[in-house]
Recover the amino acids of this structure.
């Protein structure tokens, strides 16, 4: 099977990005990371890319807080095309993608979300699960569409909520599951 060219977008520490790059390196994920792009200057995810020798860039997002300015989003499409990206992988990416990206990569953008969607879309989903008194939560990999944390579900993993969990302990447990689930879901997409 030919390796699929992926582009990873993230705003944070990059632990999911690291898990994906490790799986590519050890040969258990048939993909080639072509570029890592962040909307946050000096984000951890850019350092992870550097560590693995993956081309990486900071893309200034413009004046909005939750999305790219349209010009910046067109630039993002151009950067991904120039890097020959076939599949876009959102890994802790905190902006909502709009039409330029959705039209350029139809059914080719994946996201990971720290809940069992459709439950608890939006920010700090693990806190939402804790507040709701759930005994089981988890994480979801799904296709990205125009709505937030919405779109066809590809894979899910359950994570138990343990008595006396704090939002930190629960989030950490979900992140362990995310780092297994995301590379597996990308492999499933490739197949
Ligand atoms: C993850 O918990 C992910 O579910 C959420 O943001 C976090 C990103 O962490 N969307 P990292 O940057 O991959 O370490």
């Amino acid at each position: 099977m030919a390796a699929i060219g992926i582009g990873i977008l993230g705003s944070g520490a990059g632990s999911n990005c690291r898990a994906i790059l490790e799986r590519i390196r050890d040969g258990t994920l048939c993909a080639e990371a072509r570029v890592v792009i962040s909307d946050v200057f000096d984000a951890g995810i850019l350092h992870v890319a550097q560590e693995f020798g993956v081309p990486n860039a900071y893309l200034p997002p413009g004046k909005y807080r939750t999305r790219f300015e349209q010009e910046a989003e067109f630039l993002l499409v151009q950067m991904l095309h120039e890097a020959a990206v076939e599949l876009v992988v959102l890994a802790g990416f905190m902006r909502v993608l709009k039409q330029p990206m959705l039209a350029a990569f139809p059914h080719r953008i994946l996201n990971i979300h720290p809940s069992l969607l459709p439950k608890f879309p939006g920010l700090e989903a693990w806190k939402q699960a804790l507040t709701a008194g759930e005994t089981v939560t988890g994480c979801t990999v799904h296709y990205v569409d125009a709505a937030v944390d919405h779109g066809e579900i590809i894979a899910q993993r359950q994570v138990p909520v343990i008595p006396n969990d704090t939002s930190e302990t629960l989030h950490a447990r979900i992140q362990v599951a995310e780092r297994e689930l995301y590379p597996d879901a990308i492999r499933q997409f490739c197949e």
User: Anything to note?
Assistant: The radius of gyration is 16 Å. The chain has one domain: 4-190. The mean pLDDT is 97. Helices lie at 15-25, 44-51, 70-82, 99-104, 125-131, 167-190.
